[in-house]
What we know:
single chain, elongated
Amino acid sequence: MDLSENEGIEGARFAVTGGLGFVGAALSLELLRRGAQEVRCLDLRASSSWSQHLLDAGVRLFQGDVRKKEDVGRVFRGVDCVFHLASYGMSGKEMVHAGRTEEVNINGTSNVLDACHEHGVRRLVYVSTYNVVFGGHPIVNGNERLPYFPIQDHVDAYGRTKSVAEQLVLKSNGRQAKSKSTRLYTCAIRPAAIYGPGEERHLPRIISLAKLGLAFFKIGGPNVKTDWVYADNLVLALILANMGLIDDIPGRKGTPVAAGQAYFICDGAPVNSFEFIISPLCRSLGYTVPRVTLDTSIALAVSKIILFISTLLYPWLDRTWIPQPLMLPAEVYKVGVTHHFSYLKAKEELGYVPMTSPKEGLAATISYFKERKRGELDGPTIFTWLVVGTGLIAASSAACLPPVGPLKWVLAILLSVFRSMVVLRVVLVVVFVCHFLEGIVAWFLAKKVDPRNAGWWFWQTVALGFLSLRFLLKKVIA
């Protein structure tokens, strides 16, 4: 396309569903930077870490649900272009909520299409996913001629519902507006796995698992290659897609180039996910780098067991005390099976060329998460918690309760070390006093270097003693 970089943006009004998210916020800010008259963000959340930045830039924030027609309609009135980013079920516990995933991804998209028809919206850019054509079978340098992966064969609701929603969007291309002599032109952008400073779905979960000591394994061999896309590159692709749907350019006639089309978007450099981002990220944050390699078939079997357990816990999945699943089948496929695609069609038709290299994108991403770690509670792995917690509870129980059942064996072991109950009880008292004093020290230190988490540092150090305090001392020294 031979258009100016702000064609179709200057003086136009935009709506972004899922606008308080990582990509939605970046897109909204870029639209304003390029001269948009108004940008409206629709999001289920009342606020996010991006809210204030968006408000300061002049973005209008609307709290609402794409599953409710009235919420969508009030945001789309008078809008020229809609970017539909809102989705559900991409990762973690969300993947088990099949019903909610269908409501958001299919019903929500239907509401978006109806609202576009009702209010005469001219352009709709839908953010889809690689998973509409990928379902666990290797794909090398794939392109848009690949057929949709069979709906019934998807292993998760996200891939299945996004496929249905994308087809609804593309079939709605060219639909006549309800009350205007205009048509709605649509296209779909299929991004690879997204990374960048502030990414909130995949990388924080990987970091949390690494912090607990649970991200010690790789899935698949080093020859497994997949695509990633840096957030700024994706935002560029979305803006170019909007330009590709413009139907009122002076001197041009006919259907817009992007109308009814789908485009794969990536950095253009297939990589092994563990070598490219997971291991470097863990290493830079001081966590154990994944070393054990699991065959994809073994990881898949384990993930199915985890999925079964998560399904049993379905009624309570939204509770914070239910941890995120270690891995689920669709996630195993994403990192353990080669699948990468060409962005040649997007380059030829939209003019898309990645502006940020993987090296630059990775450096910025790591820098962001290193900075974020400085303001977070740090500590030992879950294995340390289990050993120390079990040890203290067992020793205290053996010293204070009648030696019945397993306590008899625990007491026998402890007495072989401390020789008498008196010595054992004195040692336990000393340990608890020391832990409490270390907790007080941790609280005072945290007040200086991490005041937001001072209370948590106190209780963690009371429980673990110096095994917790040493992580705080690293913050003090740094």
